[in-house]
Amino acid sequence: MIALSKFIAAAITGSSSMVAEGIHSVIDAISQLLLLWGIKTSKRLPDEIRPFGYGKELYFWSFIVSLIIFILGGCISFYEGLMRIQKPEFNANQDWNYIILTIAFIFNVVSMLTALRAFNKQRGHIPFFKAIKDSKDPSTFIVLLGDVGDLLGLIVAFLGVYLGHLFHNPYYDGIASMLIGVIMISISLLLVNESKSLLMGETTSRKTLRRVVALTEEDKAVLKVKKHFSMYMAPEEVLLQLNTVFNDDLSTKQITDAIERITKTIQVEFPRIKQIFIEPVAK
Q1: Which domains does the chain have, with CATH numbers?
Q2: Mind listing the pLDDT tens digit for each residue in 194-215?
Q3: CB 143 within 8 A of CB 178
Q4: Which residues contact 270 (CB under 8 A, 6 or more apart)?
Q5: Do the strands 237-246 and 222-234 form a parallel or antiparallel pair, or are they unpaired?
Q6: Does the pTM exceed 0.70?
Q7: Which of 31, 88, 94, 147 is the most exposed place for a label (fewest CB within 10 A)?
């Protein structure tokens, strides 16, 4: 509805920054629908085709959303502003733009505060940008940064319309549209980088790995953990492999029992480690 109202205002007033903002809102709507789809498909149970589950569906769609913001949102908005500068038009009646921008600003503030509360609950006391970098749930920070970009875009659009109206200069409107494109591209590049990292496979924290190794080596059957490998398959699902050196005098059954015991011990403390592979190796 916000996107539609912006396009109507743009059609009435001829404002390129309102066209850019309309595109921005359409991209937001499409992006959040794709994120919802990613969340839904990522919760499918493992099967013969995907024995490790579908958790990475969320990371895949998050990456696609980040690219969409760049390609469709940022580039089109920048191009629209460039075209307006080359062919400037001025419409003295900008009332509709002000009305729509005010309504959109109110709704976006509500949306951003909702996303911010969810993100703050998730990050706890971790600094904001570190939490974005370390987060394994892209749906939360993509929505939040999208809302921040929306608000910045609305402010830039308002300034473009206002300054153009104040100085009777249509170039301000075109420049505002280009700046909105730059904002979207900048946010998109950040999101692409984070989404790509999750899609390629990020390990769990060093603190968690140190504790996992300690729990394993506390078992009476274990001499040491030689190597460890981990990867996030979904925000709440970690795959873990431990190359473990067992005592020489153990039978196959004793090693098997120890593996089951260690697995249960780790999963009690770290329930998000859903799949654990403990491989006996030589010293």
Answers
A1: 2-200 (1.20.1510), 206-280 (3.30.70.1350)
A2: 889 889 989 999 999 999 999 9
A3: no
A4: 208, 211, 212, 238
A5: antiparallel
A6: yes
A7: 88
